[in-house]
DNA sequence: GATGTAATGTTATATAATCACACTTGGAGT
DNA sequence: ACTCCAAGTGTGATTATATAACATTACATC
């Protein structure tokens, strides 16, 4: 879980600098709208996730915060991450016990993730909440879905092409 | 993660005693076939999972093993779980950091899970490997899927009916 | 019976997450 | 201005989950 420079969402290159600013601005607007407080710690954690543009472990983030004097104990980062994930600004990747900034932020969406096991980059894909066989299976079983986890591990285009494994 | 008596797969009642025996027999046959060793520890861990018939944490299982003198340190249970999951006899539920016996065991299947957040029971549903939007998203992105995680959290029929939350 | 491989035993440690409680701050009501 | 409350933060300790590293055993094969 080392921090490295990165390419983009969907494994495609894009204008990274502006995407950070845009996302932050969107988050700020959304918070103002919903009377949520994007406090310094919360804002900085989101920013760190946006800059990394890949999944980061809570303790990796904490290390950065510590360097910057913004907090030094685990609860600091976990509280910020709780806030960010609860409000859709970031997502938890269960498979990695890690977190990633939300790409796109449409309210109430059900994201799916493609995780490259080599370069560790993560792409986010939008998916209808109860779509697909998971939803059908739930209906069949009389199960009420509240949240879904859809994560695929494998090889991203770049890593699949180069020496894979 | 306390062990409790339970009902069944798919949240439906079924003959539990025989389902344990059947699954164990199937596992034994499969191991014999594939020249895999279903050693005492491995067999017992599978049995524990089958009896619980719900997701169990590794340390819950370890506690049982310890009581029975079958092993007392974490690596014991993790190695057994690695074996069982690698060979399709059990599955890891990422969302819960827990494990569950496989219901059905068809080779090379891609299971999905319905997890009740109240009673903690888990139902397993069979799903085509790259089916659905996750597969389509991967194709679009040029991503090679090796493994998928599909887990839905919510309310099982019984808990949805009674006082939910 | 020497050798190789798979499995197990055991100690220590790494990694992830939460609890519990004190403190600060900024607004609402008076 | 004062009190109160709620949200957020600081901090130390603890719990939960998982792996590393290395010694030992068990068994098959030659």
Written overview of the protein:
- 2 copies of one chain form a homodimer.
- Helix content of chain A is 42%, strand content 20%.
- With 165 residues, chain A is α+β, with helices and mostly antiparallel strands.
- Chain A has 2 domains: 9-101, Arc Repressor Mutant, subunit A (Orthogonal Bundle); 110-161, Dna Ligase, domain 1.
- A 3-stranded mixed β-sheet of chain A has the order 4-3-5.
- The two termini of chain A are 19 Å apart.
- The structure holds a DNA duplex (30 and 30 nucleotides).
- Chains A, B: GO terms for molecular function: DNA-binding transcription factor activity; transcription cis-regulatory region binding; zinc ion binding.
DSSP strand tally of chain A = 5
Question: CATH homologous superfamily name of the largest domain in chain A?
Answer: Winged helix-like DNA-binding domain superfamily/Winged helix DNA-binding domain
User: Within the CATH hierarchy, at the fold level, what is the topology of the largest domain in chain A?
Assistant: Arc Repressor Mutant, subunit A
Instruction: Give the integer mean of the pLDDT values of chain A.
Output: 86
Most extensive chain interface and residues per partner: A-B, 36 and 36 residues
């Amino acid at each position: 879980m080392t921090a490295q420079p990165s390419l983009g969402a969907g494994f495609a290159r894009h204008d990274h600098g502006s995407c950070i600013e845009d996302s932050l601005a969107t988050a700020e607007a959304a918070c103002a709208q919903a009377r949520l407080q994007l406090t310094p710690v919360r804002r900085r954690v989101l920013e760190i996730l946006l800059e990394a543009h890949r999944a980061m472990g809570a303790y990796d983030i904490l290390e950065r915060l510590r360097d910057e004097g913004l907090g030094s104990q685990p609860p600091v980062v976990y509280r910020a991450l709780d806030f960010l994930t609860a409000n859709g600004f970031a997502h938890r990747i269960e498979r990695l016990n890690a977190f990633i900034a939300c790409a796109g932020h449409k309210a109430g969406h059900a994201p799916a993730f493609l995780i490259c096991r080599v370069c560790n980059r993560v792409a986010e894909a939008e998916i209808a909440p109860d779509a697909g066989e998971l939803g059908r299976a739930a209906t069949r079983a009389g199960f009420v879905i509240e949240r879904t986890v859809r994560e695929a591990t494998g090889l991203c285009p770049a890593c699949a092409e180069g020496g894979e494994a």
